[in-house]
Design goal:
about 350 residues, globular, Glutaconate Coenzyme A-transferase, three-stranded antiparallel β-sheet, alpha/beta, nine-stranded mixed β-sheet
Length: about 350
């Protein structure tokens, strides 16, 4: 879907305009394409008292914890890093509260939020586990049991999640904010569409016609996107399908330093606070490791077969005239506006 306005902006502007202290912030990606550049910018701007949703609990969550951005976490998994990572240490000290769900429960909350429901039924077996019994900041609202209106059976439910902001990294987008992603989906689309605002970073901004030719890859439509930022290597050191693999050495180095407060401070001072922006981060990487190291991360091309979207009844001809109505789209909008049924 197109939009008349470009939503391209810098990482700095995208975060400053859309992320506020105290927000519920969801890290949209799942195991791949982690939104590292966006998370780093949140840290640079010293956003505080965030409630962060994360399904993967990857290096971006460790960064945010090290940057003192987080008060609360909703997740299904904590990357323990030998039991001494930033999140674990802050959990133990009481600086961060964590509400834990299973993968299924976590996704159900986002599915409910995406579809506009207030809750979602889930498998009732959880009532016999500590996932149900152990609760922190959500208290009685973590789960609730209701009566099925059809059978009278007890039904376990989770509340819808509607975070204030989703930050998500994808392969490509157009300037209007149509975002295209492929690879392990997990909760990526639901995380974005359940949220009130969406910031998209992408490896490349492409023409609208490219997006239009492959609609099956569009997971976020333009009208839902608040900002789009071209951010090459924006998920580094995590992989992006079709673009680059894990930078395992760099990631292990970072995770290793995250096991202590001193190491975390060193990492943030060098790779986040010490870099004005993501471009500076990449320049610093090139200075230290060289272009050959960065180039070695790139995947060899492996393309899928093209899909034929030809239709025997195209609604618009080459001049933008509707083949059935004989008028342009702008004329249809004027008629709808006159009839009181047009909405921006």
């Amino acid at each position: 879907m197109s939009n008349s306005n470009s939503k391209i902006m810098s990482l700095k502007k995208a975060v400053s305009e859309n992320v506020k202290d105290g927000d519920e912030l969801i890290l949209g990606n799942y195991t791949l394409s982690m939104c590292v550049a966006l998370a780093s910018e949140v840290i640079r701007q010293k956003k505080r008292h965030l409630t962060v949703y994360s399904q993967s609990s990857h290096i971006d969550l460790e960064y945010l914890a090290a940057g003192d951005c987080i008060d609360k976490i909703v997740t299904n998994f904590i990357s323990v890093i030998g039991g001494t990572g930033n999140v674990i240490r802050r959990m133990k000290s009481g600086e961060i509260e964590v509400e834990e769900y299973s993968n299924f429960h976590y996704n159900a909350r986002l599915q409910a939020g995406m579809y506009g429901y207030s809750f979602m039924p889930v498998l009732e077996g959880a009532v016999h586990t500590d996932l149900f019994n152990k609760r922190t900041f959500m208290g009685e609202n973590k789960f609730k049991v209701i009566k099925c209106p059809y059978t009278g059976k007890d039904i376990l439910t989770v509340p819808a999640a509607n975070p204030d902001v989703c930050i998500v990294h994808v392969q490509r987008a157009d300037k209007y904010g149509n975002a295209q992603y492929w690879g392990a989906m997990g909760s990526v689309q639901a995380a974005a569409l359940a949220s009130k605002k969406i910031i998209v970073s992408c490896e490349e901004i492409v023409d609208y016609e490219i997006v239009r030719s492959s609609p099956h890859n569009t997971i976020i439509p333009a009208y839902r996107t608040n900002a789009v930022v071209e951010t090459k290597y924006g998920a580094h050191p995590t992989p992006v399908a079709g673009y680059y693999r894990n930078d395992q050495f760099f990631m292990d180095w970072g995770f290793g330093l995250m096991t202590t407060d001193k190491g975390s401070k060193r990492w943030l001072d060098e790779w986040i606070y010490g870099c004005e922006d993501h471009d500076t981060y990449i320049e610093k990487y090139l200075e230290i490791f060289g272009s050959d190291m960065l180039d070695s991360l790139k995947y060899k091309p492996f393309y899928s077969a093209p899909v034929n979207y030809g239709s025997p009844f195209p609604p618009w001809d080459d001049n933008g005239i509707h083949t059935a109505l004989g008028i342009k789209y702008e004329d249809i909008e004027k008629i709808m506006e006159k009839e009181g049924i047009f909405h921006e």
